[in-house]
Amino acid sequence: MDETALITSAQQGDLNAFNTLILHYQDAVFNTAVRILGDEDMAQDAAQEAFISAFQSIKSFRGGSFKAWILRTVTNACLDELRRQKRRPTTPLEPETSDGEEMDSPKWLADKSMTPAQKAEADELEHAIQHCLNALPTEFRTVVVLADVQGLDYTEVAVAERVPLGTIKSRLARARVRLRECLRSFEELLPSSFRLEEENAR
Amino acid sequence: MKNFRDIENLSAYLDGQLSASDAAQMEARLKSDPELESALRDLSAARGILRKLPARKAPRNFTLTRNMVGLKPPLPGSYPLFRFATVFATILFMCSFTANTVTPFFSFGFGGAAAPAAYGGMGGGGCDGPCEEAAMEEAPAATEEALMQAAEPAATEEAAPMDAAPVATAESAPMATETTRIAETPATKEGESEAATQDQAVETVNQAPVEEEAPVPFTWTLLFLFISIAGTVILWIMRQTAKRKWR
Lengths: 202, 247
Prior knowledge:
By secondary structure, chain A is mainly alpha-helical.
């Protein structure tokens, strides 16, 4: 696949060329959206929105890493979605007792940590990691997803996030520390093969 | 617990983002500082876990359609011209149609005045302008003509016994009519009835121009309608052809 030629054609309005690029990057885009949003349906919407937005603004692409550019688009779409959610938060219905009366102070409201049932549900590497990712502030989450999940280097992440390299370095370090702390609580639940491994430093 | 600058540098070291000299310095510190080494292991473990995350495949293709991105088939250069002409003709048609339809409802004096004027010039009022002028222009001629026609038989009737009036003129007509009235012959009655018929004709003649008095001629309205319909059809054909070519 001649990516540069496809990008040039897409910039001239060739939708087929852009669709070829989509087929190449759609997994990365969707995966990024799922990890940032933590929901498949929302991730699909965000990915579709990102591709539409990318086609409409592809003329602004001035070279460099196309993957970083397209991931920036999906990151922005995800952030928009998260902002929308913040503006219109969904309030769960009050649970009812067996008599059909509303509970005044349900336990699940008082206790912010996961319930045993939820922990059992998260007895899986993916769920546990996603839970910890969701607990991260958005700006840390996007950086860690782009760097550690998508494997972009610092410069690409800086391009995608439009922040200085030093900020990326700092956010990534903080995100990793927080993730490590969060994942400690799941260590007992995870199978031994998935327990935090100590990678040799290089 | 290490300060955050150390953690940042450790994280960068892990990713190979430190310069060669900084990396060598960090390695030397790691050998001598077990706490720093433990922090590196933590960071490395967190990164390793994230890398183990299974990559989610896209559940469907996200390829775009022309509708999704609002792309439209390229239309011929003459399309805007046709569109403008069609819209303009439609507007003109609507205006002329409205004007022609609405005008009679707002000018009752128009038609109402015409009748009395035709009957003898009495009454009137409310019929100013073209209506009255038309009546004034048309009435004498028509009356003259009618009277000439009406006078002819009378003159002929009278000419026989009197051997007069070889040629009946318009001026002689009133006199002839008066004479016939005095004589009260059946021939004059016949002439009167014919004159009445002619009066009706005069009335019709006087009313006819008022009915045709539309602000926009009917042929123009028809022409505007034709252009707007033809333009719409042409535009539709142009769009369909462009779409077919685009596919």
